[in-house]
Design a protein that fits this description.
It is a single chain. By secondary structure, the protein is mainly alpha-helical. It contains 20 helices and 4 strands. It has helices spanning 6-12, 21-24, 42-48, 68-77, 85-96, 99-127, 133-136, 144-156, 161-168, 178-192, 210-235, 261-281, 289-307, 310-323, 333-363, 391-394, 400-427, 442-458, 479-490, 505-546, and strands at residues 29-36, 52-60, 325-326, 329-330. The strands form 2 sheets. Strands 1-2 form a two-stranded parallel sheet. Strands 3-4 form a two-stranded antiparallel sheet. It starts with 5 loop residues before the first helix and ends in a 16-residue tail after the last helix. Residues 222-238, 501-510, 537-549 have a biased composition (Low complexity). Residues 186-209, 221-258, 488-562 are annotated as: Disordered.
């Protein structure tokens, strides 16, 4: 909250009103502030920036990695919907070659095909009695598209969806909304098993065979249980009532509380003998103060045990035995007490790693393609799964009409992406300095550049953003494929030639035109800013001359008056 001085508010603040551009059309105010983004066309921007008599200010909304120049260029290039027939025809021709639009059309087709094939998939699982009928009724729910999206994502990550659905729908009962219940269970499972979703994960136990992993799981389970028992025995020790005003500390906090009764009696005899021998052998016949103190502490421990309740004493004996034995074998109790928590944590980590590796082997399907097997496709050999996922095309449950439509649209998308690559190589600043390697064909190179250009256009990435950082922080699993593609392209880019001096003559001319346009835009902006400042200063001077001298001068109003 911002608090303003009342006098300042009375002299310098004026109530302003916000309105849409269409509502304010035909209205004239002193000053106008227009909030614009890249979705505004140039006619609307013109109306918004001509409402003020004294001053018009544009506030631009930019997306991530988008500059104000990008927004202004987009606004200037977009016209209103009420265009002529020729303009409409030209727009449609451009849209037909727009890779972003072609990808959106493909995505719409794939979404519908996914819903159909997953509906049939669940019906097959119900008929085969792999999942209960209640889970199969999820296909009739309005939340089923959420389940479809999750199942498609799991399929793309390499998860064995059939096995997972059998496990997740066990004991599902009769939920009010089966689709919502399945979606919730999938989300919970994903949070609990993140490594199963990572196709590149290689854990410390990944190289063990199934028999060795099973044996390790048994040993880790026993060790974890024993370590947890020792930790529980140590932490459950309680102070003892010995009949005095204050209870005796728990055995874990008494100097000799970790000794058994037999060990305590033996240590007392040894300590008394050592103390007596020292007193006899000492020339001054003086006792050993340290030995006497140890004897006193051990005698106090013996007296404490004798005075405590028999039940509490038996509990302490059991706790001492639990901490001092590992698999039935005695160990040094003091060493065990120092490391009991660390041992419990280590055993729990091993058990968790074993459980996660077993989960990966249960829920991940065997590799069926080069991508599944971890082999990267060559640069531009085909569209990535981000541009055109192929799961619906390869699924036998997808109707043939939808499969044919997807194949045809994929071909159109491939042509649009390839053309976008040709355009980017000639005009896009981030694509300058790229040199095609000999092992990559021209079409593959153009396709790879075009797919990166399509991703950048779909995500409103500015032209200044480096090529190698494209899709680095993507929000979907398929974005990683685009990022790998961008990095592969960047390895063939001349970093010391940002303006394309090593590129074609057309690229150098395009770079020169961009620099000239930028300089001209800056000159126009500076000139307009100077004129606005001069006009505002003149208006302020006239306003000051006309105001009465009994009141401080009031500045030019800061907001529109509608």
């Amino acid at each position: 909250m911002v608090e303003l001085d009342p006098r300042y508010v009375a002299d310098n603040v004026q109530l302003g009103y916000a309105a849409t551009v269409h509502r304010s059309q035909g209205v004239t105010v002193d000053t106008a502030h227009a909030v614009l983004d890249a979705s505004v066309d140039r006619s609307t921007a013109y109306v918004a920036l001509t409402r003020g008599r004294l001053r018009n200010t544009a506030w631009l909304v930019v997306e991530d990695d988008q500059t104000t120049t990008d927004v202004l260029d987009t606004i200037a290039s977009r016209t209103a919907d009420n265009v002529t027939v020729l303009d409409a025809a030209a727009r449609e021709a451009r849209a037909a070659a727009d890779p972003v639009r072609m990808r959106d059309i493909y995505a719409d087709l794939a979404t519908t095909a996914d819903r159909i094939r997953w509906s049939r998939h669940l019906d097959d699982l119900v008929r085969g009695r792999h999942i209960p009928p209640a889970a199969g009724r999820a296909t009739a729910s309005q939340q089923f598209p959420d389940v479809v999206g999750r199942l498609t994502g799991l399929e793309a990550a390499g998860v064995d969806v059939d096995t997972l659905l059998r496990d997740l729908t066990t004991g599902i009962g009769r939920p009010e909304d089966p689709a919502a219940e399945i979606a919730t269970r999938i989300d919970q499972w994903s949070d609990q098993h993140p490594t199963v979703l990572d196709p590149d994960h290689h854990g410390p136990l990944s190289d063990l065979d199934d028999q060795a992993l099973t044996g390790l799981a048994d040993r880790a389970g026993r060790q974890a249980q024993a370590a947890a028992g020792r930790a529980q025995a140590r932490h459950s020790a309680q102070p003892a009532d010995v009949g005095g005003s204050e209870p005796a500390p728990a055995w874990t906090h008494r100097p000799y509380g970790d000794l058994t009764d037999t060990e305590l009696s033996q240590r007392i005899r040894e300590a008394v003998g050592e103390s007596f021998a020292h007193a006899v052998d000492s020339p001054a016949r003086e006792p050993d103060a340290g030995a006497d103190q140890a004897v006193s502490q051990m005698l106090a421990e013996r007296d404490t045990r004798a005075a405590m309740d028999p039940g509490h004493r038996r509990a302490e004996d059991a706790q001492r035995w639990e901490v001092s034995h590992l698999d039935g074998r005695p160990v040094d109790i003091r060493d065990a007490m120092r490391h009991v928590d660390r041992s419990a944590r280590a055993a729990a980590v091993v058990a968790r790693e074993v459980s996660e590796e077993q989960a990966r082997r249960r829920w991940r399907r065997a590799p069926t393609s080069r991508q599944d097997a971890g082999h990267e496709t060559g640069v531009g050999e085909g569209l990535t799964q981000w541009a055109a996922p192929t799961a619906a095309i390869g699924d036998r449950r997808t109707p043939s009409t939808w499969r044919d439509a997807l194949v045809a649209q994929r071909q159109r998308l491939d042509e649009a992406v390839t053309q976008a690559g040709r355009d980017a190589l000639g005009t896009a600043g981030w694509a300058q300095g790229l040199t095609r390697p000999q092992e990559v064909t021209t079409r593959q190179w153009q396709r790879a550049v075009g797919e990166v250009a399509t991703w950048r256009a779909a995500n409103h990435v500015g032209g200044h953003y480096p090529l190698e950082l494209t899709a680095e922080n993507g929000t979907t699993p398929h974005d990683a494929g685009v990022h790998q593609l961008a990095r592969a392209l960047a390895r063939h880019q001349h970093k010391d030639d940002p303006d394309g001096q090593a590129a074609s003559p057309g690229s150098r001319q395009a770079a020169a035109r961009r620099r000239q346009a930028t300089s001209e835009a800056l000159r126009r902006a500076r000139r307009a800013l100077s004129e606005q400042r001069e006009q505002a200063r003149s208006q302020q001077q006239r306003s000051t001359t006309q105001r009465p001298t009994t009141r401080p001068p009031r500045s030019t109003p800061g907001g529109p008056r509608l």
